[in-house]
Amino acid sequence: MIFTLLSTLPVLIITSELDYSELVHSAELVSSSSSHLHQKSFNSRKRNCTRDTDIIDRLLNGTGYNKFRIPQEEGMTVVVEIWIQAITSIDELTNDFDMDIYITETWLDPALNFQHMSPCKGNLSLNHQVLDRLWTPNSCFINSKVAQIHNSPFRSVFLMLFPNGTVMVNYRVRVKGPCSLDLSNFPLDLQKCSLIYESFNYNRQEVEMKWSDAEFPVFNLSKIVLPDFDLFAIQTARKQEPYPAGMWDELHVTIIFERRFIWYFMQAYLPTYLTIFISWVSFALGSRAIPARTMLGVNSLLAIVFQFGNIMRNLPRVSYIKGIDVWMLVSMTFIFCSLLELAIVGFMVRDETVAKKKQQKKISGNPSREESPHGIISERRFMFPPGCSDSTKSLNSCGTGCWTPERIDSISSVMFPLTFFVFNIIYWFYYIHRKEIIRENMINRVDG
User: Which tens digits make up the pLDDT trace of 84-120?
Assistant: First the structure.
């Protein structure tokens, strides 16, 4: 029985293998048949339309198309739109800013109309190699310091051609533009940077440049974050400027930045407050602690001068006074005045010491003296009010009291903080109000 089963097993295996191969072969026949039918249907649909390469070949080869000739004799209209990708930096020392943008230009070229060719696509997406064969308005930023198309990893130029002959070109550009920095209100200031875009080769009679009809022809794709500034506003304008070859259309982009104040408050104003407060501690040390008060005042003055130098190192050398200059100079004046007050107190202490020594010598050498019941030697003819010396007799004659070092320190401990408080009110009110005026003037000037 077992021998019979073993003898029939190869036959069963061969039979099963034949069945499986037949099934696979039949499946392949069905698949190839369906694929052939699909390809035949696809080819039949594609047979009546024109491919992209054929369209470009028909448009540019053998038709007399000339990229150096303006497509329309009456002139071209080029619509421009700019998308701001990022603003990387604003440099006060060189008065410029860096940003990455997308520039979109659109115009109608009747010679590129391919509606009659039955295109397979609604529009053609092409690269910069095709653009090099087409007419372009040759636009550029005429006031930029550096402007270049990105090449990472290939040239970042996008070309789209519509059936009616409309050409849309998009460039990804890194541009370094100028800024007209006014630091008179620094650090409570607003700064304005601008770019001017125009056709370099064609005047207004040949190429008319205009912004797109969108609500914001220039807008940022994402939130602009800078260490020192916040993006306050983006303004656009279209102007006509005369040149020897005619009138040119200029598209102006004005970007207004508002400086972030908190960093300068933490690094400049707050340490200055602390330095001035420390200089006032000398008023409480007493009139006899001259060395300690001198060291405290001189160190405070050196600290604020060093701090002022660090701030000025990162700013351009302008010929006008900035807001931070007023603050630092007045702060140094307060510390310098505290040193002058210390000099007056030291002079009076030394004068008192000399006067007491002279008085003691005079008393010891004068026979007309008497000893009090407590053993204190006094002289009746030269008795003065307590705390007054011979040198201050003329001041006491009017009954106004003595200007002792202790009294001068007491008055200074009140007058210095009070004067500094009044200065703070005037300073902050003036520069904050001036900042609002500058903001309104910038917006009204651009809108007008």
Answer: 999 999 999 899 999 999 999 999 999 999 998 888 8
Q: Where are the domains of the chain?
A: 57-259, 264-357+399-447
Report the chain (448 residues): mean pLDDT per 10 consecutive residues: 38 37 43 46 58 90 90 94 95 94 97 90 91 95 95 92 96 96 94 96 95 94 91 94 94 95 92 95 90 93 92 88 96 96 89 63 56 46 46 44 84 96 98 95 71
Per-residue confidence (pLDDT) for residue 85, from 0 to 100: 95
- Is this structure's pTM higher than 0.70? yes
* CATH numeric code, 264-357+399-447: 1.20.58.390
Q: What's the mean pLDDT when you consider all of the chain?
A: 83
Q: What class, spelled out in words, does domain 57-259 have in CATH?
A: mainly beta
SS (H, E, C) the chain: CHHHHHHHHHHHHHHHHHHHHHHHHHHHHHHHHHHHHHHHHHHHHHCCCECHHHHHHHHHCCCCCCCCCCCCCCCEEEEEEEEEEEEEEEECCCCEEEEEEEEEEEEECHHHCCHHHCECCCCEEECHHHHCCCCCCCEEECCCCEEEECECCCECEEEEECCCCEEEEEEEEEEEEEEECCCCCCCCCEEEEEEEEEECCCCCCCEEEEECCCCCCEEECCCCECCCEEEEEEEEEEEEEEECCEEEEEEEEEEEEEECCHHHHHHHHHHHHHHHHHHHHHHHCCCCCHHHHHHHHHHHHHHHHHHHHHHHHCCCCCCCCCHHHHHHHHHHHHHHHHHHHHHHHHHHHHHHHHHHHHHHHHHHHCCCCEECCCCCEECHHHCCCCCCCHHHHHHHCCCCCCCCHHHHHHHHHHHHHHHHHHHHHHHHHHHHHHHHHHHHHHHHHHHC
